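pasting for ref
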Amino acid sequence: MRGVSHTYDTRHHAVTALRDVSIEFPTGSWTAVMGPSGSGKSTLLHCAGGLERPTAGRVIVAGDDITHASDRELTELRRTTIGFVFQNFNLIGSLTAEQNVAMPLRLAGRRPSRSDVRSALDRVGLAARARHRPRELSGGQQQRVAIARALITQPAVLLADEPTGALDSTTSRALLTTMRTMVEEQRQTLVMVTHDPMAAAAADDVVFLSDGRLVDRLVAPTVTDVADRLARLEAGPLATAV
């Protein structure tokens, strides 16, 4: 992301969510994004993944400048290169867990194999619930189905918005371990918005946003350091630039 700004035009006034953000997420890296509510975290993910077009600046994914890509090109990018995990699960209620997981492949015109679908569910600890529909699953289980669905296409980039937010501590730790494997063994690039210092400390580095600007960064973070920086940020603007 190079000099990216994004402004939302509301009925009464314009709201700038990102202000001249420049940041690179190298291949095979894991970056956590933190900051107070309204700091621009989700907008950063949306611009990085082509869900929102920046008002200014450029977004380059896997070597391709997507800033002015057509809707069709962006749709193809999201089917083949970028995976998303959102706070709301967006599961299809009439489909089973395995059918929900297989959906991205079907939309891309590929025939999903049962073994690949079951493998994705197994990675999030839900192989035994493959035939269950969303209403038969807890909130945490639905979130894990959504994560398996994002993993099934083996995207080069995974953008995750609070992926552990609905999970208990044991399941959260297991998911973080899976994410570490994705980064180290499969060379996937992971960008994760989170409020959880424990989840953030699992990443390679943590960047902090405030009022749409990048204001701080931690490399090789610890839970204590993350919690301390976040507390200082929420108490008032940091003077330290990235």
